[in-house]
Amino acid sequence: MKSNFSESLLSTAYLPPVEYMSVIYRSDKVEIEQCENYQKQSYRSRCHIYSANGPLPLIIPVERSGTHSIPVKDIRIDYSRRWQQQHWRAIVSAYRMSPFFEYYEDDFAPFYTKEEPFLFDFNTKLTELLLLLTGIRKSISFTEIYRKETGTGVTDFRELIH
Question: Domain residue spans in the chain?
């Protein structure tokens, strides 16, 4: 398949939606923004799964800080709440009877039992697992500075998929 994008710039995402994965698949080069300021109510810390009662949002709680301008790579996950147990129970309840769930369950379970201090690292490891399991072979790089604007040939999806 011919790529649609020579280079794509994405934000980090928790269990990213299919549009996000499609952009990765259809891009020659993928870069994830790690220097942007954290934005609440975005895919950076939330996802939606489909339960028996319809869409169910799953939100990773993050530690609060006195400033709003913290780079997403420095955002810490708040483990004082039992979000991992709640998320895993919701995922199992929603997908236990789905074909092949049992084959992937052991791959995903550690994300809901072990503590990863930083949201960005958690999301990156989960996205790498999704790429491996879906057979998408792409090398992903990360920004070293915040890219306010992108150059020619770079498609910016940071605000398009959220």
Answer: 5-156
